[in-house]
UniProtKB/TrEMBL annotation:
Domain named Aminotransferase class V: residues: 143-276
Residue ranges, compositional bias (Basic and acidic residues): 1-13
Name this polypeptide is given: glycine dehydrogenase (aminomethyl-transferring)
Annotated keywords: Oxidoreductase, Pyridoxal phosphate
Enzyme class, first EC level, given as a word: oxidoreductase
Pfam families membership: Aminotran_5, GcvP2_C
Length: 475
């Protein structure tokens, strides 16, 4: 597929920012302001634009960008599936625009939705209770570890360690450390799975939990999961499920049935809510019955046909205001309700099928098999980052590169269930063509995108994250 990305520029600068377009200085009358002087300004500069100018500005920006609406977006371990627009329609319904301080009696429909979503997620994960409050996956992960900590403390167990595989997401290590635990890193075996012998050596009476993703980061199902769960429970620890790869199991396997005690759900990955660039998001947490009293509060329950909020006495308390990011939860509810049990299972099966079909079409080695929804190909003696940049010139988004680190020149690829065979073939062509290109072509890529090759070292050492930084530099 031939591809050239749009490029709007003048004097070697891209489409101007709104702050640079016809700014008008508006004087502010401070006489009646109740704010202290340090919080006020004499004037603000506001763009003075017509509606057509504004529409063209954002259209141009969209044409100079790339998203799942543009084409395949196979970032491994990210599940960049298409977010169906009907969920936006549901969230935009005026009935969803409820103030969080309204009485429970006046928002019974909203509470019923939250109650049902708790139930949906519990059944999907094989859990007994769910909180919807955490505002993102990482926040849910942290909340889940705090639940584990509260459980151990309530039972008089002063445990100090959390065991985490080396292939785990970085947030696992951060969550455990933030909760006050020492991290024991667990190596993978030669097959890419948990090294059971190393796990046995790592577990002790100091072990609070083992955090695990299943399938793991290279898409492998932990075939010893039942034995692993027994090993953790035998030392009094808890088994934590990172829901990053739940999309591979929907309708076909449940973490609770495998022996997991706690899990968080990444609704932006599994249930097609927007990834959001950092927010708003949602990271519900599910637990087995024994841990339910420690979940963040308030939660929703049904009594006598009415829905109400309640605060368990042993709860770790709030981790976010009100009921989390309400409209994100509405979108997740709509997605689950629309697909139903069969639809969710079908989406999972297609995600696994697509990953395996794509891998079969690549001229790359995939060292770890059999995989489920994602796989880690290796670029061999080529630089994976250069290959990825060259793939941009073929009109696709590249996979995650250089991770996990135990795969040399890794290209972690997750096409998700939304791609058809034609788009998978286009993606395979981009992979193979980029690998076949010369060293010079790779070193100068990308050449057909709006932004050409980025100086990554300067970007990392001298980040400019706001237009104000550009203004301060006189650029």
């Amino acid at each position: 597929m031939d591809y050239d990305q749009a490029r709007y520029s003048r004097d070697d600068q891209y489409e101007p920012l709104l702050a640079e377009k016809n700014a008008t200085r508006v004087e502010i009358d401070e006489e009646d302001s109740p704010l202290p002087d340090e919080l006020t300004r004499d004037a603000v500069e506001l763009p003075d634009l017509s509606e057509p100018e504004l529409a063209r500005h954002y259209t141009r920006l969209s044409q100079m960008n790339w998203g799942v609406e543009s084409g395949p977006y196979p970032l491994g371990s990210c599940t960049m599936k298409y977010n169906p627009s009907f969920t936006e329609d549901v969230a935009a319904d005026p009935n969803a625009a409820v103030h969080p301080d309204r009485s429970a009696r006046s928002v019974q429909g909203s509470l019923e939705l939250l109650y049902d979503l708790q139930d949906y997620l519990a059944r999907i994960g094989g859990m007994d209770a769910v909180t919807l409050q955490p505002p993102a996956g990482a926040a849910g992960e942290f909340a889940g570890i705090l639940v584990a900590k509260a459980y151990h403390e309530a039972n008089g167990n002063d445990r100090s360690e959390v065991v985490i595989p080396a292939s785990a997401h970085g947030t696992n290590f951060a969550s455990a450390a933030m909760a006050g635990y020492d991290v024991v890193e667990l190596p993978s075996d030669e097959d890419g799975r948990v090294d059971v012998d190393a796990l046995e050596a790592a577990l002790s009476e100091d072990t609070a939990a083992l955090m695990l993703t299943n399938p793991n980061t290279v898409g492998l199902f932990e075939r010893d999961i039942v034995d692993i769960a027994e090993m953790v429970h035998d030392v009094g620890g808890l088994l934590y499920y990172d829901g990053a790869n739940l999309n591979a199991l929907l309708g076909r396997g449940r973490p609770g049935d495998m022996g997991f005690d706690i899990m968080h759900y990444n609704v932006h990955k599994t249930f097609a809510t927007p990834h959001g660039g950092g927010g708003p998001g949602a990271g519900p947490v599910g637990v087995v019955e024994e841990l339910a009293p420690y979940l963040p509060s308030p939660r929703v329950r049904e009594r006598g046909g009415n829905y109400e909020l309640f605060d368990p006495e042993e709860s770790i308390g709030k981790v976010h205001g009100y009921q989390g990011n309400w409209l994100v939860l509405v979108k997740a509810y709509a997605y689950i309700a629309r697909l139903g049990d069969e639809g969710l299972a079908d989406s999972s099966a297609k995600a696994v099928l697509n990953a395996n079909y794509l891998a079969s079409q690549l001229d790359y080695e995939v060292p770890y098999e059999p995989f489920h929804h994602e796989f880690a190909a290796t670029a061999g003696d080529r630089d994976a980052a250069d290959v990825a940049k060259r793939m941009l010139d073929y009109g696709v988004h590249p996979p995650t590169t250089k991770w996990p680190e135990f795969v040399p020149e890794a290209m972690l690829t997750e096409p998700t269930e939304v791609e058809n065979r034609d788009s998978l073939d286009d993606l395979a062509h981009a992979f193979n063509a980029a690998m076949a290109d010369s060293d010079e072509e790779l070193a100068n890529a990308p050449s057909k995108t709006t932004a050409r090759r980025i100086d990554q070292v300067s970007a990392a050492r001298e980040p400019r994250l706001s237009w104000r930084a550009l203004d301060a530099d006189g650029e």
